[in-house]
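Support request, priority: normal
Reporter: lab tech (M.K.)
Component: structure prediction queue

Hi team, I submitted a job for Glycosyltransferase from Massilicoli timonensis yesterday, and the status page still shows it as pending. I've pasted the exact input below so you can check whether something in the sequence is tripping the parser. The sequence length should be 334 residues. Please let me know if I need to resubmit or if it's stuck on your end.
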Amino acid sequence: MKIYLYFEGEKIIQTSGIGRAMKHQMAALTSAGIDFSIEPCEDYDILHINTVGPSSYGMIKKARKLGKKVIYHAHSTEEDFRNSFVLSNQIAPLFKKHLVSLYSKADYIITPTPYSKKLLEGYGITLPIAALSNGIDLKRFEPDAGKIRAFRNYFSLMPEDKVVISVGLYFDRKGILDFVEVAKRLPQYQFIWFGYTPLYSIPKHIRQVITHDHPSNVLFPGYIKGDMIEGAYAGADCFFFPSKEETEGIVVLEGLAARQNIVLRDIGVFEPWMKSAVNCYKGRNVDEFCELVQGVVEKTLPDVSEAGHQTAQERSIEAVGQGLKKIYEEVLAK
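Reply from support: The job had stalled in the queue. We restarted it manually and it finished. Here are the results:
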C-alpha cells in the first residue's frame, strides 16, 4: 500500500493549521509503517488530498484516469472561511459550492472532528465521512526548562510577570478582537498573539487593531516557530483561544500537549472532547473570558492541565497513524 499525500501550495500553507496537518500526516504514516510520497508519482494506491486550490480538481481527475482511490481530507468548511480575509463573507457561498463539488469527487472523506463531519453532512454530501484528529507531536511540546527560559528572555519577562498567549492568523474568526478587549480589561498581564497574516489581505478594522488600536500590554510578534513557540506554550500562565469557528484547532492540541491551562470560546467544534472545568475552561463573552483568564493566571481555578494532556495523548501522532491505516485498508477493500 502506497499513499500519495497531496498538499497544494506548500509554501503558502506552511504557517497555517493545514501546513501543520501535512507534517502530522507524514509523521503518522511513518509511525504506522505506511509507504507514502509527497512528490508527483503514479505508483500509488490512494490519493490523499488535503487542499482545495485550482490544481486540486486536476489532481483528482488524473488519479481517476489511473484507476486510483481518492480520499479527501476536509480541513475547510464554509463556516471557517467566513470572517477571515477581505471579501470572505461575500465569497463564502461560492466557496461552499466549490468545496461540495471537490469533496464529492472522492471515495471517502476524512475530517478532524465530529462537528466538522456534521457540517459536511449538512451540505448534502453522502459519501462515507470519518472524524479523525489531525494529531499532535507530544514529545515536541513537552515542557522544557530551556525553551521556557528562552521564551521569557526573548520578551524580557521578569519572573513575576504574568503572560497570556494565543496563536492564530489575524482573523476576526479567530477571536482576535476579543483577545485585545480582554487585554484592555486585564492590564496587569502581558498578552502575546503569535501568528501572522499579510495585512493587505485582512479587513481594515482588524488591520487597524493590529497596527495601532491595541493597549501597550499586547504584543504581535508575528509567526514564530520552533523552540520559541514551544517555550511559549509551556511557559505562559494561560493559553487563551477565543476562536469563533474551527474544524479542530491544532493550536489547542499544542497547548494541551504542553500541559497548559486553556481558556476557549464555548463553540460546537469543542464538543464533546473539550469539557469546561475538566480539561479546559470555556466562556461565551468578554466578561466570562476575563473571569476565566484571571482565575487561571492567579490559580484560583483548579488546574486542569493534566486532564488536558490526557486529551492530547488520545490524539497522538501514533494514534492518528493507526486511524489512517484502518481507513486506507477499508477504502482499498471496497
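Residues 317-333 form the longest helix (17 residues). The mean pLDDT is 95. Let us know if anything else looks off. Ticket resolved.
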